[in-house]
């Protein structure tokens, strides 16, 4: 009889212990899940100027500038190509300098001045570079064109500012606008249609007009 009572008590203790373990584990698991959920929901407010207009966003901290422009501001002229900074389709200008917008976070650009293809010109009032691309047929499918044009505008500004490239010969003289300089500086913008010679002609014409 004593053995049976001891066995029954052991079973009771086991059940109580198991129930307590399940309750504690469940509560801990719920806490972990809530913690993970909160981390996924972290956002930040960011303010910058896009094409001359002040814009305020509340975005996930992981949102790239490219996705902020396309998905939040609906400026879809800037294209998502490789999403790895290798094709240049997402090129925009930030404070006058060209960047791959897929490689930078939106929250890193608080107070910056951002220019996309939509901010360069509009139908009936094209930017000289846009007009030159049309004139020289500097695009075929057109997917890379916004990035090509933004990059080309920035390239001429880089040369004007006498910023050397890998092919610049004389670092003591004003950098010249040459086919070699343009090809080198535009090498980060890939055109899968192969309109490179036409793109070069368009950039040279704009450079000569400015000169």
Automatic annotation (TrEMBL):
InterPro entries: 2Fe-2S-bd, 2Fe-2S-bd_dom_sf, 2Fe-2S_ferredoxin-like_sf, 2Fe-2S_ferredoxin-type, 2Fe2S_fd_BS, Aldehyde_Oxdr_Iron-Sulfur, Beta-grasp_dom_sf, TAT_signal
Quaternary organization: Heterotrimer composed of PaoA, PaoB and PaoC.
Top EC group: oxidoreductase
An annotated GO cellular component: periplasmic space
Residue ranges crossing the lipid bilayer per the database entry: none
Record NCBIfam families: PRK11433.1
Name this protein carries in UniProt: Aldehyde oxidoreductase iron-sulfur-binding subunit PaoA
Keyword Zinc among record annotations: no
The reaction(s) this protein catalyses: an aldehyde + A + H2O = a carboxylate + AH2 + H(+)
Domain 2Fe-2S ferredoxin-type, chain residue ranges per copy: 44-120
PROSITE patterns membership: 2FE2S_FER_1, 2FE2S_FER_2, TAT
Main location: periplasm
Alphabetical keyword list: 2Fe-2S, Iron, Iron-sulfur, Metal-binding, Oxidoreductase, Periplasm, Plasmid, Signal
Any one Gene Ontology molecular-function term assigned to this protein's record: metal ion binding
Any one Pfam family match given in the protein's UniProt record, by short name: Fer2
Lineage: superkingdom: Bacteria
Entry EC no(s): 1.2.99.6
The gene coding this protein: paoA
Coiled-coil regions listed in the entry: none
Compartments, record wording: Periplasm
